[in-house]
Specification:
heterodimer; A: 113 residues; 7-stranded mixed β-sheet; 4-stranded antiparallel β-sheet; B: 113 residues; mainly beta; 6-stranded mixed β-sheet; 5-stranded antiparallel β-sheet
């Protein structure tokens, strides 16, 4: 069974440029998460989807970040414009609510110059 | 407000001995607890989980213990192997439909050959 797939793995951009990350969750997982991980820290939740509905986006900086989950499967996280402080790893994860297990993708490492 | 805490940033253990990683939490409304292993430049890999209604779960060399009265979680690795060297994160899932996973800041385990 394929795991959570993310792309791109690495992205280097200049500040004020836009960037987008894509995620394909594990088949059948209705809940999808985007997390932010800074060096030396644990993952921090940005947004959670149940099917196509964003049920928790309280920690998403909505002035520059946006996300969508097309047809309740793939998801895209966008930053526009990017700032220096956005340099981090963006992790996508999916789960089945009844099992409690959460599975991560490899992450997308963003460097903003 | 750090609801999930890993107070030891690092741990060194001799190969073949037991590794014990600890985690404390402050919120009684978590229903699942999980452990992840993370290698550099990779996403967190799910290791083992435990439901809040249990006090022990075992999977091969990995055992997780849950002490609800002390709000304490631990991961035992026996015997430790050099390949276990990584950063370990504990996580807790909010109950009552929130399904929000909160992570600790991680403990770096080094297994010495």
């Amino acid at each position: 069974e394929a795991g959570v797939v993310q792309s791109p793995r690495y992205k280097i951009i200049e500040k004020k440029q836009p960037v987008a990350f894509w995620c394909n969750p594990i088949s059948g997982h209705n809940t999808l998460y985007w997390y932010l991980q800074n060096l030396g820290q644990g993952p921090e939740l940005l947004i959670r989807y149940e099917n196509e509905e964003a049920v928790d986006d309280s920690q998403l900086p909505k002035d520059r970040f946006s996300a969508e989950r097309l047809k309740g499967v793939d998801s895209t996280l966008k930053i526009q414009p990017a700032e220096l402080g956005d340099s981090a790893v963006y992790l996508c994860a999916s789960s089945l609510v009844r099992t409690g297990e959460l599975f991560f993708g490899e992450g997308s490492r963003l460097t903003v110059l | 407000d750090q609801q999930v805490k890993q107070n030891s940033p690092s741990l060194s253990v001799q190969e073949g001995r037991i590794s014990i990683l600890n985690c404390d939490y402050t919120n009684s409304m978590f229903d699942y607890f999980l452990w992840y292993k993370k290698y550099p430049a990779e996403g967190p890999t799910f290791l083992i989980s435990i439901s809040s209604i249990k006090d022990k779960n075992e999977d091969g060399r990995f055992t997780v213990f849950l002490n609800k009265s002390a709000k304490h979680l631990s991961l035992h690795i026996v015997p430790s192997q050099p390949g276990d060297s990584a950063v370990y994160f504990c996580a807790a899932r909010g109950a009552s439909g929130t399904y929000k996973y909160i992570f600790g800041t991680g403990t770096r385990l080094k297994v010495l050959a």
